[in-house]
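new request in #modeling-help
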Amino acid sequence: MAGKIRVVVAKPGLDGHDRGAKIIARALRDAGMEVIYTGLHQTPEQIVETAIQEDADAVGISILSGAHMTLVPRILELLRENGVEDVVVVVGGTIPDDDAEELRKLGVAGVFGPGAPTTEIVDFVKGAVAA
Amino acid sequence: MATTRKPEGGRAGWRERYEATPERQGELFSTISGVENEPLYSPENVELDYERDLGWPGAYPFTRGVYPSMYRGRLWTMRQFAGFGTAEETNERFRYLRDHGQTGLSTAFDMPTLMGYDSDHPRSLGEVGREGVAIDSLADMETLFDGIPLGEVSTSMTIHAPAAMLLAFYAAVGEEQGVPLDRMRGTVQTDILKEYIAQKEWIFPPLPSMRLVVDMVEWCSERMPLMHPVSISGYHIREAGSNAAQELAFTLSNGFALVEACLERGLDVDSFAPRLSFFFNAHLDFFEEIAKYRAARRIWARQMREKYGAQDPRSWLMRFHTQTAGVSLTAQQPEVNLIRTAIEALAAVLGGTQSLHTNSFDEALALPTEHAVRLALRTQQVIAHETGVVNTIDPLGGSYYLEQLTNELERQAYDYFDRIDELGGVISAIEQNFQQREIAEASFRYQSEVERGERIVVGVNRYELEEEQPIEILRIDPALEQKQIERVQAVRARRDPDAAEAALARLKEDAAHDDRNLMEPILEGARAYVTMGEMCDALREVWGTWRETPVF
C-alpha cells in the first residue's frame, strides 16, 4: 500500500488513564506508522473529526472508565454517518469478554485487554488496514 | 599457567568465587525501576551514620518510622477504598466493610464527579457511577453517610479539582448530624499537582487550582483542625507508569510546592504542615518499595526542618497512606493477584505505613465484588495478626542492601529536585511537560523489558494458561445512571432557588478576588443544595479551564 499507515490514538470519556494509550502510540510509531494522539477527555464527535481531518486508516480507542458500551458505539455510528466506516477501529482497555464480543459485532475490528503485547497490536493494525 | 591457589577470604575472595559461577541469563537483576543491584551488600557498600541517617522511631529524621511505638502501639488503619453506582449502593458497601472490621472509610468518586460535571451533564453520559460513586449535591452526601456517625469515623475522600465542594458537603452532613466541625476527622486528597502530572482529572489551570487548595488548607487549620486537607499523592504518578524514584521525587516536590504556596499566603509553616499527609503506591519490587518509604520520610523531615524552618516536630514527620499497585494486577489468571497484593501490602507495612488499601484480585477486569474485597481486607488482617512482622519496629533497618537502596533513592530524588528547579519549579515544569515525559519514558522502558522477556510477569509472558477460567465480576446496572440524573434534577427543583442563586453569585464574586477564601461561600452553596457541577461551572467562568498538550 502507498505511504505510511495513519493511526489516531484516542482517549474518549473522562478517565485520565493514559499509560496504555501512550505506550501503544509509541509502539505504533516505532513500527513505522504515522500516529496522531488526541490527548485526553475527547468526545466521540472530536475523535471522529480528528479521524476525518487526519485521513486516518485506523482509530485506536483506549478506554478504562467503564463507559465503553456508551462511547464506542457512538464513535462507530458517527464514522458511518460521515461515510468513513472503512476506518479500522481497535479498542483497548478493561473490557469484559461479553462486552468485547458485543463491540466486535458492532464493527470493532479488534479488542485488546490488559497485558496484550504491543507487538500483537501492531501486527493486528497492519493486517487489518491492509485487508 | 593456571594456579590452583585457594581464593582468599573477605570480600575479594567471595567476589572471585561468585564470578566463578555463571549468572542466569535473560532476566534483569536491576529493580523494577531499573536501579542496578549488586549481587551482595556488605558494610563497605553503605555509607551510614546511625544517628544522622536513621535515628530513632518517632524522632528526626524519622527514617525508621513516625511514631515511637509504631505497630506495637496501634496497627495501621485498614482503609478499603470503595464507591460505585449511586450514594445508596456505596452506603451499603461502607456498612458491609464496617461490619467486617474495617476501621476507616474511603470514598471513590466517579469520573464526572472528579471532573466537576453533574450526572446530567452531556459529558457524563455512560460514566455515572462506573468507577466510583456519583455525588452531585449535599443530598447525595446525606445518603452516602446515612447511619454512619461522622463523629466516630475517619473518612478519606479521593477528590481533587472539586475537593473544596466535597469537603463542604461532608462538613454540612456533619452539621446536620450535630457533630462539631472541629471533631470531624478524615482526609481529602485534594492534591491537584499530581493531576496535571499523572491522573489527569483536572478542571482549572494550575494557579487558580492551587489557590483553591491553599484556601482549603487555611480554612481547615481554623475550622476543621482534625481534617487532613491535602494528601500529597504519588500513587497515581506510579500508576501512570513512573518508576519508584520518580514517584518519590515528584510527590515530594509537589509537597514542597504546596508548602511554598501556603507560605506565600502568609501562613505559618507549623500552622498547617502537621496536617499534610501523603499517599504512596506499593509496587512489586519489595525492597525498593520499603526503601522508598524510608527515603521519603527522611527527605521530608530534612527539608521541612532545614529549608522551610518548621519548628514543630509534627511538621517534620511524614504520615502516609499506601495502596497496592493496581498497575501490577493482571487480567490473566486473576487469582494470582492475591499473591501480588499480599507481597505489596507486606512492603507497605515493613515501610511503616499509617493506613493501607489492598486491591482486590479482580480489579484488572472491573470494580471489585464483595467477595474480592473481603479477601483483600483479609490479606491485611493476616499480615497484622499472623505473620509477626508488627512485633518489631522497622525490622529491616540496618540491612546493608536496604540502607544502600534508601540512600540511592534519596540521591535520585534530589537529582530530580535540581532538574525541576532548573525548569523554574513544579508548575513551570508541568507546563513544559517535564514530569509527564519522564513518566512516559519510564513506562515505555518497562513495557519494552516485559516484551523482550527480560521481566517476567507470571501468567502474562510466562506460565500462561491455554484457557482462562472466567471469574465473576461486578456489573454496574446502567439504570443507575438514569436514577442519579433524576435525583440531581429533583434536588434542583425542590431547593430554594433564591438561596442557590445568591450562593452562586457570591462564589463567583469571591473567586474573582484572590484575597478571599472560597471555603465559606462554597459551604454556603452546599447548604443551599447548589450542585458540585454548578459551583465548578461558576469557577470555570472566572478561571477558565486547563488543557494539556498531549505528548507520548
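bot summary: The mean pLDDT of chain A is 94.
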